């Protein structure tokens, strides 16, 4: 099972990492906090203080097409916000 899918690089996540040394990742839906902590520490070589997880619901999407009105949802995903020890940081672009 691949635990880490990708880092989340939004404006909100970037502000969180600059302000409070917290980094955001999209993770496997079945992964727990212990598995997420171990995977990030192994991949990036950092010390993690805390892991917070949440399941983000998909947004409702709709559009008009030639065939008529089409509606659906974007998929839901699990997000993990990890807090690192003071003085440590993750460089997404060097490791990936």
Give average pLDDT, whole number: 93
End-to-end distance: 18 Å
Q: Say how many strands there are.
A: 6
Largest sheet composition: 4 strands, antiparallel
Order of helices and strands: EHEHEEEEH
Strand order of the largest sheet: 1-2-6-3
Radius of gyration over all CA atoms, rounded: 16 Å
| Oligomer classification | single chain
- The CATH topology turns out to be Alpha-Beta Plaits
Form type: elongated
CATH class: Alpha Beta
Assigned CATH architecture: 2-Layer Sandwich
CATH superfamily: RRM (RNA recognition motif) domain
The percent range for strand residues is 35-45%
Helix content: 25-40%
Which structural class fits the helix and strand makeup? Answer: alpha+beta
Q: Which tags fit this structure?
A:
96 residues, alpha+beta, Alpha-Beta Plaits, 4-stranded antiparallel sheet, two-stranded antiparallel sheet, 3 helices, 6 strands, structural constituent of ribosome, ribosomal protein
What layout of secondary structure does this protein have?
Elements: E1 4-7, H1 11-20, E2 22-27, H2 33-44, E3 48-56, E4 60-65, E5 68-73, E6 77-84, H3 92-95
Antiparallel strand pairs: 1-2, 2-6, 3-6, 4-5
GO cellular component, one term: ribosome
Function: One of the early assembly proteins it binds 23S rRNA. One of the proteins that surrounds the polypeptide exit tunnel on the outside of the ribosome. Forms the main docking site for trigger factor binding to the ribosome.
InterPro entries: Nucleotide-bd_a/b_plait_sf (IPR012677), Ribosomal_uL23-like (IPR013025), Ribosomal_uL23/eL15/eS24_sf (IPR012678)
